[in-house]
């Protein structure tokens, strides 16, 4: 298919031009047996699912990031990994994704093709397939270049039941690596702060990592990925729902120097920066060494570490500063704005 | 990170804190705490970020000053910003933290949501770059801040003038520190014993503008840096002054603050700005000679003239909001009837809850911590 | 408006407009150096200087000797205290 032009309203109108886009570009890039069946729906044998566990996990997310492409990924890789991870942190084996595109008239076909290709590679890496979808085109101004929605299903093996309300006093808090990379990379890529920094998004699938964790510790109490709002937001959810305090040690938090530098310059707190390849786990203390060892054998977990513990309390996140004091890490009220003071 | 991490060393902090405790127990009154005002919002932020107040002896009390330009911005000025932003063709640029301050109708963030072209910039030079790229639009930069930001905005205006840019203007809301300090010192409700003076303002104005504090009001003052060790060292220096019966202007931040201030910066400020006769401050009312305006020679770059703003009608905060009293240090945040009830970080009614260094925002979090311990 | 942090000037970007590149913990940004140059310390001699960066401007040259002096004083202060504590303990047990 000729990729030299741009997406036009015709590409969404249901006619020949649209069918060409869907068949020759989208379907052929995502290609897999279920998709090849070419029906209006993907038909998945139930037996295949029940063989893997006792609950269906089902999730959806929409992706509207600007810019579309940034160091470390693009809106497409986010869309795949984001939904894969939402399934994985429920203990599910992610299986099948749907993918809905809302494209703004004028998007370059080359860009669209590049994003599709990344999505295919991301899906392959995560071991999932995109088996159904939809494409719409809106006029200029009707969307910000490209919006993607992905929904996904997976199956949860019996006995896996992490829950935001599951943290218990004495548990240990673990993350799988560097915090804040994605948020910093996006801020940087937007260009309006005119900073140059060697920061890449950490966008990655976490299902292999999660599988390894459950294999050594079926009783993981809490598990979430720390996306929008960062580590602080997830921990506040855990603390509140479980009715405990999460106490973090500042000098154990893994933050890359350039991310720290950006935060110092702009007056931002890295605990609130988004991540796209980081999870937060709350596990029983006696299981922690085994969980860490299992994580550190997998690329997405090489830098896994303990950052704190669960104590009695009434739903707060406390940071023990490297300085020797303590402060509360509250939920973010709105968007974090760079300080000048 | 060099020249930052060393000034955050916890081991040194412990030793400094011990020194302060020792001095405080032998040389200060045990019944009436020493009231030290850290004037600057940046210092308030460091105090809370590192939990420094909890480390101090009971007979040293920090009074949080009004040196947060966002916090002292009257609602009327926010209304002016919104009015400018709503003009057709205007690109309104501002530092980030000013965007959330509520006006009588809306904040700049809300104006942006309603369709105004409001953009956050890190530097006034970035605003100038936007003006160059958009010659058909009117670029307005919200020039906010004490003397720290005045050289930057002045130099940017001079650059715009050099390039003959027709579409660039500043909405000048700068305020000066010494005049504001004088208003604090003459406030009958405040009993202060000493000051930690803003390090970065001093980097621009030098040490001598503070001489009047020791000379006329007999309060010792230490110019202070922004890392936790800076603040602890400055407090130690201040308490030592009390212990030794001295009353001086001392410079803790000598690595950055020259005695004469910044020559090039002061020159640019003098070229572009002059004092404004009347300036309204949230909480402090009208302070003569504390406000700054653009000189007549540069009227073409003055957004107030370009957009024909009326002299702002004085809009006071609603009766039940005690921003003014908290700002002056007369009332503690939790004593305000709206605190944590109708006014909180998710729904801030006043600037002290909006700004991360406003006392109310800080106490909102810190208060929960006090409950825990 | 006080959020200024120390950075090191790594290169001159524009001599006429007095723009230099500054490195802050690995993050780089162009800043205006008008406030840190003068006849005795022209733009060309700025490379390698540590400066206080605020809102895109280098606002002051960091006096490295003064910084070292301050840190030494702080270290000594603590040591004095530690020594006195030891002396006190020794005295008490004598």
Number of strands of chain C: 5
Main β-sheet, spatial strand arrangement of chain C: 3-2-1-4-5
Strand neighbour order, sheet with most strands of chain A: 9-11-7-12-10-13-14
**Amount of beta strand of chain C:** 25-35%
Strand content range of chain A? 15-25%
Helix content of chain C: 25-40%
Helix/strand/pairing class of chain C, anyone?
alpha+beta
Rg value of chain C: 20 Å
Number of helices of chain C: 1
Order of helices and strands of chain C: EEEEEH
Tell me which protein chains meet in the greatest interface and how many residues each side has: B-C, 55 and 39 residues
Helix content of chain A: 25-40%
Q: What general form of chain C does the structure show? A: elongated
How would you sum up the global shape of chain A? globular
Q: How many alpha or pi helices of chain A?
A: 10
User: What oligomerization state is this entry in?
Assistant: heterotrimer
Main β-sheet description of chain A: 7 strands, mixed
How do the strands and helices of this protein lay out in sequence?
The complex is a heterotrimer of chains A (341), B (373) and C (94).
Chain A: H1 16-30, H2 33-36, H3 46-50, E1 55-63, E2 69-70, E3 73-74, H4 75-88, E4 93-104, H5 109-126, E5 129-138, E6 146-156, E7 172-175, H6 181-189, E8 195-196, H7 207-216, E9 222-225, H8 230-242, E10 244-249, H9 257-266, E11 279-283, H10 288-296, E12 305-312, E13 317-320, E14 326-328
Chain B: H1 10-27, E1 34-40, H2 41-49, E2 60-67, H3 75-85, E3 90-94, H4 108-113, E4 117-120, H5 124-133, E5 138-145, H6 150-163, E6 168-174, H7 177-185, E7 194-198, H8 199-205, H9 211-217, E8 221-224, H10 228-243, E9 249-251, H11 263-272, E10 273-276, E11 280-281, E12 285-286, E13 291-294, H12 303-306, H13 323-327, H14 351-354, H15 359-372
Parallel strand pairs in B: 1-2, 1-7, 3-4, 3-5, 5-6, 7-8, 8-9
Antiparallel strand pairs in B: 10-13, 11-12
Helix pairs in contact in B: 1-10, 6-11
Chain C: E1 5-14, E2 19-24, E3 27-32, E4 50-54, E5 57-61, H1 64-93
Antiparallel strand pairs in C: 1-2, 1-4, 2-3, 4-5
